[in-house]
């Protein structure tokens, strides 16, 4: 059957078998478009196929995911993240891109990169290794035996989870309740930081 694959601004026809796997289609795309996949220890790239908004796994069969003659499949060249960070606050997993040398940098540097992606100031969260060890700013990632592709965990400080979620969602009453309690100045920093990054305004009318 003939399908169409969109890649790098072009859309080309491919004749494939209905029982062909996604992985074998990726090889066809790689050869047809002369895609150079770097698989060294510094930067890793890979092809990602998606259909109807869903990412296709390599071992899936085309017909099993509803691909029929004339279907359009999207193909992207992506970079493998050096590490991933699971946020216990939002339930999302962030991908931190770069080279393997990131593992030799300080935890403080990683905290800054994560802060830029998640919208939280570095003072409001902590990171833990896959084994549950808290990462300290002065150390380096390789001090905790963190390997390429590892998933770290992001947590806020004790008692801050509901407050931080309220900031993200713009729930003014929740935020005001926490700000009226102890340490209002300490909690004002993430409030303003999140409001700036996400366009929410939970700090209005705090007088």
TrEMBL record:
InterPro entries: ANKUB1 (IPR042788), Ubiquitin-like_dom (IPR000626), Ubiquitin-like_domsf (IPR029071). Gene3D superfamilies: Phosphatidylinositol 3-kinase Catalytic Subunit, Chain A, domain 1. Residues 1-79 form the Ubiquitin-like domain. PROSITE patterns: UBIQUITIN_2. This is Ankyrin repeat and ubiquitin domain containing 1. The gene is ANKUB1.
